[in-house]
């Protein structure tokens, strides 16, 4: 009852429960047993953010204990952060299977294959630079749920069609409404940009993100040193959720103390 947070309604007839209340109670029952195999079908689609975070922590706990988990969801980023293997289905047909990050990228390409309005800016660019893979990593593992103290690496794989002398690789973190939170690039950070044709991998490492709870996205781009030429742009190349204890409002965490005299 405590886990489900249904103290106020626990004596009500269950026919009066909402679908969300049913799911809360069901997950709470699971959390208090020791399953060997756990089947979860869109169980995190209901409930507020705090309850979803509580469920995520319980799922991670089960995973660490060696429980076999089959997690069914439309949230590909969430699945990629929780699962060792990702299977993408389209009307029962397997489209991709294996590495979570690669399967998630295949899912998105397949999802928007017939949607001309969803073509990425990279496909509409000069194609001098492409971004085959963009990943968020914690301790080398893909992650989409981040805590304030985590060391996070934004890993960007690039591929040049031909030699370029003045390419700069840039990122931009945006909050859910699209407002810019932070942006930087290889020139500002003193990292040489790609020059020779072929693949390169760039890493931007954050020693803790001072962001409040919420959902964020990351755009990736490439431009000339003077900023006059845009070589490529890939919007929402990665997404993540910040999860922490803060109850403040806004997007940025600030060290603050309160006092009275």
Word description of this protein:
- This protein has helices at residues 19-31, 49-64, 76-82, 100-111, 121-124, and strands spanning 37-41, 68-72, 86-90, 93-98, 129-138, 141-142, 145-146, 151-160, 167-175, 180-185, 198-207, 214-224, 230-242.
- The chain contains 5 helices and 13 strands.
- By secondary structure, the chain is α+β, with helices and mostly antiparallel strands.
- It has a 5-stranded mixed sheet. A 4-stranded antiparallel sheet has the order 6-5-8-11. It has a two-stranded parallel sheet with strand order 1-2.
- A hairpin with a 2-residue loop joins strand 3 and strand 4.
- The protein starts with 18 loop residues before the first helix and ends in a 19-residue tail after the last strand.
- Mean pLDDT is 83; it is low at 114-126.
């Amino acid at each position: 009852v405590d886990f489900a947070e249904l103290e106020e309604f626990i004596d009500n007839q269950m026919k009066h429960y909402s679908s969300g209340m049913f799911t809360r109670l069901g997950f709470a029952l699971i959390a208090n047993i020791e399953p060997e195999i756990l089947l979860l079908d869109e169980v995190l689609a209901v409930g507020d953010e705090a309850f979803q975070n509580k469920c995520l922590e319980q799922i991670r706990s089960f995973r660490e204990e060696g429980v076999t988990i089959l997690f069914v969801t439309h949230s590909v980023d969430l699945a990629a952060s929780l699962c060792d293997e990702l299977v993408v289905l389209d009307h029962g047909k397997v489209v991709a299977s294996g590495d979570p990050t690669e399967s998630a990228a295949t899912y998105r390409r397949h999802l928007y294959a017939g949607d001309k309005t969803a073509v990425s800016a990279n496909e509409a660019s000069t194609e001098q630079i492409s971004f085959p893979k963009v990943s968020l990593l914690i301790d080398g593992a893909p992650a989409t749920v981040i805590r304030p103290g985590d060391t996070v690496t934004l890993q960007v794989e690039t591929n040049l069609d031909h030699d370029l002398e003045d390419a700069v690789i840039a990122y931009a973190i945006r909050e859910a409404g699209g407002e810019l939170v932070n942006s930087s690039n290889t020139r500002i950070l003193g990292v040489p940009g790609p020059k020779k044709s072929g693949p390169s991998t760039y890493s931007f490492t954050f020693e803790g993100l001072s962001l409040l709870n919420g959902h964020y996205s990351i755009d990736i781009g490439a431009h000339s040193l003077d900023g006059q030429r845009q070589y490529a742009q890939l919007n929402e190349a990665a997404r993540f959720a910040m999860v922490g204890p803060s109850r403040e409002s806004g997007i940025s965490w600030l060290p603050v103390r309160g006092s009275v005299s």
